[in-house]
Specification:
It holds the Pfam family ABC_tran. Keywords: ATP-binding, Nucleotide-binding, Transport. This is Lantibiotic protection ABC transporter ATP-binding subunit. The chain is an alpha/beta fold and 238 residues long. The chain has one domain: P-loop containing nucleotide triphosphate hydrolases (Rossmann fold, 3-Layer(aba) Sandwich), CATH 3.40.50. Helix content is 34%, strand content 26%. The chain is built from 7 helices and 11 strands. It has a 6-stranded mixed sheet, with helices on both faces. Strands 1, 2, 3, 5 and 6 form a 5-stranded antiparallel sheet that branches. Strand 10 and strand 11 form a beta hairpin. Helix 2 packs across helix 3 and helix 3 crosses helix 4. It is globular, with a radius of gyration of 18 Å. The mean pLDDT is 91.
Length: 238
């Protein structure tokens, strides 16, 4: 029997009369990487915000580690939604120290997460001077402070150069070996194909496909089939 850390059951989110997330049922296997694929505006970020509690679902359920999700579960969840919220006038260590104080964590955790993301040598450099890749890695370091079981990353490679993408890819791939389950969103098929163990394809708020990645399959063809099919389903529903 599969061991799932996170599942959603018929998860819905409406804004006014518009359904941004429509009966989505995700299944995240423990200690794996799940890639949530979809075009811009498909409902990826909304889904991740529902899982982190930033938004309240209109209907449906979120099951975390075998029980109904509650805000207490946030102690086991780390997230980087959209751009990392950094204090530009502070160093990497100082940014992390702000969060260890808020989370009542020992300062020793700062060096631990800096080593994980390979940023232990930034010294007195302020985060405003960091490259986009360094900012993303610092954002992930902040998300790792509380020893999360689940790490949620929203379009983590956006704006990165090829080197930054490669470094971040290798970092993300290392997390399951540390007991961290990852769900990340992206609209870049090739990137998810190299990182994820399982994928879900969402379009117009509908999850049209979910399965283990089968290497050798034409992911672009599958993606387009789901996106076009979901458009037709929404049109027929209307």
């Amino acid at each position: 029997m599969e061991s799932y850390l996170l599942q959603t059951e018929n998860l819905c989110k409406k804004f006014g009369g518009q359904c941004a997330v429509n009966n989505i049922s995700l299944a995240l296997k423990r200690n794996s990487i799940y890639g949530l694929l979809g075009p811009n505006g498909a409902g990826k970020s909304t889904t991740l915000k529902l899982i982190t509690g930033l938004l309240h679902p209109t209907s449906g359920k979120i099951i975390y580690d075998g029980h109904s999700w509650s805000r207490k579960d946030l102690k086991d969840i780390g997230s980087l939604i959209e751009s990392p919220a950094l204090y530009g006038n502070l160093t990497a260590v100082e940014n992390l120290k702000v969060h260890t104080k808020l989370l009542h964590l020992p300062d020793s955790r700062i060096q631990e997460v800096l080593e994980i993301v390979d940023m232990q040598t930034t010294g007195k450099k302020r985060s405003a001077q960091f490259s986009m890749g360094m900012k993303q890695r610092l954002g992930i370091a902040i998300a790792l402070l509380n020893h999360p079981k689940l790490l949620i990353l929203d379009e983590p490679t956006n704006g990165l150069d090829p080197l930054g993408i490669q470094e971040l890819r290798e970092l993300i791939r290392s997390f399951p070996t540390k007991g961290i389950t990852v769900i990340l969103s992206s609209h870049i098929l090739s990137e998810v194909e190299q990182i994820a163990d399982h994928i879900g394809i969402i379009s117009n708020g509908i999850l049209g496909y979910q399965d283990k990645i089968q290497h050798g399959d034409d992911l672009e063809e599958l993606f387009m089939k789901v996106v076009v099919g979901n458009k037709k389903e929404v049109k027929d529903y209307d």
